[in-house]
Structure prediction request, 143 residues.
Amino acid sequence: MDLTVVAYVIYLLISVALTIWVARTLSRNGRVFLADVLHGNEKLADAVNHLLVVGFYLVNLGFVTLYLKSSEGVADARELFEALSVKVGVVLLVLGVMHLGNVYVLNKIRRRGLMEREQTPPVAPQGWTGPGQGPWAAPAPRV
Prediction:
């Protein structure tokens, strides 16, 4: 068997396994953020989480397959390890960037939700005070 084919098989096994592991980690821990952002709506949090994970798989597995082809053949074991280290290293960097991007987006969504909660008054208004009324208004002139 050609060593280039062996390199392809090992690369695909490692890359797909890493992609699945990162996606599961994001799914498990991202759900907590989404539930907080969506004010405890678990069903919506699960749906959004699933959509994010599917997108993560599509982007990363698409990159892994596009990056499969090697411009040079692999002649010996040393070149096999070198080719694998470069390919797996790039996949790890892409996975890391995608992971940080997901965390950044989830954090932005969470912050927006926290800001919206802070703007909502904790108690509904009791009534309306017109101009010249209330404790801060100037006393009426004496005649």
User: Anything to note?
Assistant: The chain has a mean pLDDT of 81. Helices lie at 3-37, 42-66, 77-119. The chain is about 70% helix and 0% strand. The two ends are 109 Å apart (CA to CA).
